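Hello forum,

I keep getting stuck at the same step: I have a sequence, I want structure tokens, and every attempt I make locally crashes halfway through. Rather than fight my setup again tonight, could one of you with a working pipeline run this one for me? It's a single chain of 123 residues.
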Amino acid sequence: MRGMVRENIVLPSNFIYPLFIHDEDFNTAIESMPGCERHSLDSMIKEVGEAFELGVKTFVLFPKVADELKTNLGVEAYNPEGIVPRAVRMIKEAYPESIVCTDVALDPYSDQGHDGVVEDGKI
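Reply #2:
Ran it on my machine without issues. Output:
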């Protein structure tokens, strides 16, 4: 009876799994988000595999870019060998049916920490 009158069915395939990644060989805890980790690319692909087996097939990537790669113009965002393009390729090669979303914000690549370019004190 409940199945006949319920409004929503939430399935694993309805979820988008956020993956916080960095270009290190180890995982680190994200202090501001207890229970969440920033993954190495090897750890990320294992995490994707576990989620994929449970029916989660969509992922969104949030990179932490090394400080030395950050610039006012966020040039590293255009690097085809940067962390996000490599992560997308790894996921799609291992799980071709997956959907991989990326965050188009500039702040991970900006030495100013903003989503836009800072010129003369203006964003």
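The longest strand covers residues 16-22. If your local run keeps crashing, start a new thread with the error log.
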